[in-house]
């Protein structure tokens, strides 16, 4: 097997202002599948084609934003090794016992210098996508609910110390840099896109003075037509749309950014290319940031830089 270490984004826990309104939004409009509720009142969702118990968890709070973002690692030995590697690097880690998140094993949590809580875990109950493992149908009825993305794909986070975050992901967690936007003076990175896989990004960071901010969680659609259909469904349901449908120059992803009822931005996205770890990163100069964000319009939308939760 070529892929070891950190496998993929596994879950995001996001704060919402009104739980039941948000459940209606994520279930009926975005079209996620509700898979559980816990004693703390958290509601668990998965995308229809995901096999693990959940990928998106919401909890009611006074402010919107991201509690933590988790990555699934290959196995328990990998989890132990990465915990030791993080500590050897100088980061503090804490263990969250199995079962704290429903159907999820022990998690290793640490705080990035950007103020974000990242978790690693090796075990989450596999519930399947409903099509079975023998002679499976290509999709299930669950795809037909709302926008119906196939998986939680990546997230973009805003916070300080992106250069240090870059080092942790590449030197400890085995990610590689796929693309970056330079600072205006060309000496540093204003934003970085990192992959632990063959995907064009599994996580991205942009330099921002306030720590721990969420720019967006992104959900993968199967086709450009499905992204356009997502836009139709957003409009039918009066969802606040930020940017798109359009294409990012960075990653070449085809996208819509929109906001959930609490103001958390999310993305419905498809496409991009498939990098390998030996690819040289692509670089965007700051004066081309607009093309990086919105290639057809060449526009650095103000909200991209300023609206986060
Ligand atoms: C993405 C994404 C900019 C943004 C690119 C965004 C500024 O690639 O997936 O959200 O280039
Ligand atoms: Fe994105």
TrEMBL record:
What's the short name of a Pfam family annotated to this entry? Diox-like_N
Catalysed reactions, as listed in the record = catechol + O2 = (2Z,4E)-2-hydroxy-6-oxohexa-2,4-dienoate + H(+)
Keywords noted in UniProt: Aromatic hydrocarbons catabolism, Dioxygenase, Iron, Metal-binding, Oxidoreductase, Repeat
- Which residue range or ranges hold the VOC domain? 8-123, 151-271
* InterPro entries listed in its UniProt record: Catechol_2-3_dOase, Glyas_Bleomycin-R_OHBP_Dase, Glyas_Fos-R_dOase_dom, GlyoxalaseI/FosfomycinResist, VOC_core, Xdiol_ring_cleave_dOase_1/2, XylE-like_N
Q: Name one GO molecular function term.
A: catechol 2,3-dioxygenase activity
Q: Which family does it belong to?
A: Belongs to the extradiol ring-cleavage dioxygenase family.
What NCBIfam families does the record point to? catechol_2_3
What is the protein's quaternary organization? Homotetramer.
How is this protein named in the record?
Answer: Metapyrocatechase
| Originating organism | Azotobacter beijerinckii
């Amino acid at each position: 097997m070529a892929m070891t270490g950190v496998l993929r984004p596994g879950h995001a826990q996001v704060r919402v202002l009104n739980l039941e309104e948000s459940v209606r939004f994520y279930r009926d409009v975005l079209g996620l599948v509700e898979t559980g509720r816990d004693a703390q009142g958290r509601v668990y969702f998965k995308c229809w084609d995901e096999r693990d118990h959940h990928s998106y968890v919401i909890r009611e709070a006074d402010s919107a934003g991201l509690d933590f973002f988790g990555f699934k690692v290959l196995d328990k030995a990998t989890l132990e090794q990465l915990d030791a590697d993080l500590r050897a690097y100088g980061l503090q880690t804490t263990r969250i016992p199995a079962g704290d998140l429903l159907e999820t094993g022990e998690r290793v949590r640490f705080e990035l210098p950007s103020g974000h809580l990242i978790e690693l875990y090796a075990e989450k109950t596999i519930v399947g996508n409903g099509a079975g493992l023998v002679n499976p149908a290509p999709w299930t009825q669950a795809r037909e609910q709302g926008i119906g993305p196939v998986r939680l794909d990546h997230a973009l986070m805003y916070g300080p110390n992106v250069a240090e975050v870059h080092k942790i992901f590449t030197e400890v967690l085995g990610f590689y840099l796929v693309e970056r936007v330079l600072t205006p003076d060309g000496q540093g990175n204003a934003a970085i896109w990192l992959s632990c896989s063959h995907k064009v990004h599994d996580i991205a960071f942009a330099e921002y003075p306030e720590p721990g901010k969420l720019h967006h969680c992104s959900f993968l659609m199967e086709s450009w037509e499905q992204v356009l259909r997502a836009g139709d469904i957003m409009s039918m349901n009066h969802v606040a749309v930020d940017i798109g449908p359009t294409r990012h120059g960075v990653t070449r992803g085809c996208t819509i950014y929109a906001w959930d009822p609490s103001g958390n931005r999310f993305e419905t996205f498809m496409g991009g290319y498939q990098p390998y770890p030996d690819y040289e990163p692509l670089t965007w100069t700051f004066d081309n940031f607009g093309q990086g964000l919105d290639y057809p319009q060449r526009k650095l939308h103000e909200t991209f830089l300023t609206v986060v939760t």
